[in-house]
Amino acid sequence: MPQPSGAFSAFAYTIQPGLDTPNAHHASAGVDRELGRDLTASAHAVFVRGFNHVGNIDYPTAVPSRRGASSPPGASRGTAG
């Protein structure tokens, strides 16, 4: 499989020994009312709150330069419109 060329970011995954177990609280409630023979009204709400969720931050190792970038085929450089 060919390797991609260019600047890519790198990940380093580490697990801390005292990491708490992730969990979440979920709640939902709703009401439906019949207003007429062919008409109903509904109202619903959802609550979600997460605790100790694991995520990552991806810092780029290099930012590619626009200098010397080629234009797509059929595009003319330096002209407007």
What does this structure look like?
By secondary structure, the protein is mainly β. The protein has a domain at 21-50. 0% of the residues lie in helices and 33% in strands. It has strands at 23-36, 39-51. It has a two-stranded antiparallel sheet. β1 and β2 (39-51) form a beta hairpin. It starts with 22 loop residues before the first strand and ends in a 30-residue tail after the last strand. The mean pLDDT is 76.
Number of strands: 2
The H/E string reads EE
Distance between the terminal alpha carbons, to the nearest Å?
41 Å
Calculate Rg over CA atoms: 26 Å
Helix content: under 10%
From the spread of the alpha carbons, the general shape counts as: elongated
Count every helix, treating DSSP H or I runs of 4 or more residues as helices.
0
Low-pLDDT residue spans: none
Strand order of the largest sheet: 1-2
Structural class by SSE content? mainly beta
Give the overall pLDDT as a whole number. 76
Strand percent estimate: 25-35%
Summarize the main sheet: 2 strands, antiparallel
Briefly say what this structure is.
The chain is mostly beta strands and 81 residues long. Helix content is 0%, strand content 33%.
